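look at this record:
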Amino acid sequence: MGYTIRSNYIIRFQKDSGIEPMVVTSAQDTNPGDREVIDGTSYQRTPSLPGKLPPGLREGMLMQRLLRQVHAAIKEFQPELIHAHSPMLVGLPALAAARWHNLPFVYEVRDLWENASVDRGKFKEDGLMYKGARGAESIIYRTADAVVAICEKLREVIAPRVGTHTALHVVGNGVEVEAFSPEPADDAVRATYGLEGKRCIGYIGTFQPYEGLSSLVAAMPAIKQAIPEAHLMITGAGGVEDELKAQVARENLGDTVTFTGRVPHDEVKKLYAIPELFVYPRILTRTTAITTPLKPLEAMASGKPVLVSDVGAMLELVKPGETGNVFQAGSSADLAAKAIEI
């Protein structure tokens, strides 16, 4: 997922800059609490929570476990700085540990958890859980020594909540272009997924409701009418996958849409080589208005044209007609017209 990929980039390039990182992962990750070394960096795992717990209790226990683990890591590693990323389930324990040990603290905001939780149906808009999460995030913004946002839209939104003595920066999403350089499609990979002779449109990414994939599927009949060889390749899993497959079946698009399933990040480059166009059809929500995804940048680095919806954060990645193309968010008709034109 995007969080893991961004973290890996940061850790690698910190090391290239002469910084020695040590990583503590939260109890939200599925792990037994062991320690391991990855590419020369020590990862200290916080034991995950067993079973299901009531809301509130679960979050409290997640933070308590992480706080203990960060305390232990600080005592052992003796760092000069603590760097944590959102949400507050990570940020609050890391901040508390940093202050206890009198260490500077940097908070990296990748999304507003309260907004994402509304988009995913976990919180009610402006409900008690929403207000509690927003309040906790604001405490971190005001107290951190520095806050980093992943894009300008996000920076604009959190700026009024950041403390007057807190430095606020933008470190935008990016990808390592050498890892996604253009290359010809592999015929064997095409054959694996039954894509021989197809002119593919691609989507590689998460299956969250706000990604707007139903609009992309709905656009395929019009695209196929204009371009009979057109085919949609969707890579990923989870989220609204079942709903998408039901939509494909309902609209008799089984011979037009291929689901590849989840593909490891180090193998996905071969799939980027197949489509002629990548589409990122995000709909407008609290989350998509202010956060940028990584995947369109991977497609760009692979030398592929991209078509994105016109939600605000996407326009930080794509300059229409220059670095990509744009369609009206939520409109499968406009998506189809622009895809056919490209």
In short: The two ends are 28 Å apart (CA to CA). The chain has a mean pLDDT of 93. Residues 57-77 form the longest helix (21 residues). The CA atoms of residues 150 and 277 lie 25 Å apart.
